[in-house]
Write a sequence for this structure.
């Protein structure tokens, strides 16, 4: 099993940056996909960025160029660098891992989800 634990959320002004971390015990970069998701109040959860088991990165188009996903395999830690944050980025951010296939829609109730970290962007 994979046990993701997110950290790094907080409150920032529009245009600011945050870096989220996800410590994922049990994660094996050769076997699992891992990614970042978010859910704002009243909205559906959406995939933001992920890394497939072959190392390929995927991004939601609306965050490409502002958000960067990376990992430190030696530390089993995933990161999401978020720059030029906007009020619409306000949401609970989750880290999740799953087995391939690795599209955003393949992360489901059988995947391994963290508890989330809140990001609030003030205008």
């Amino acid at each position: 099993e994979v046990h993701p634990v997110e950290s790094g959320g907080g409150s920032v002004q529009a245009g600011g940056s945050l870096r989220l971390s996800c410590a994922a015990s049990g994660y094996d970069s050769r076997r699992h996909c891992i990614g970042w998701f978010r859910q704002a109040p009243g909205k559906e959860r959406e995939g933001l960025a992920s890394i497939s088991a072959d190392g390929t990165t995927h991004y939601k188009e609306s965050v490409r160029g502002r958000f960067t996903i990376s990992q430190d395999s030696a530390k089993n830690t995933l990161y999401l660098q978020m720059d030029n944050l906007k009020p619409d980025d306000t949401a609970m951010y989750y880290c999740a891992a799953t087995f391939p296939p690795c599209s955003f829609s393949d992360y489901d109730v059988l995947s391994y989800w963290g508890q989330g970290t809140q990001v609030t962007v003030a205008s």
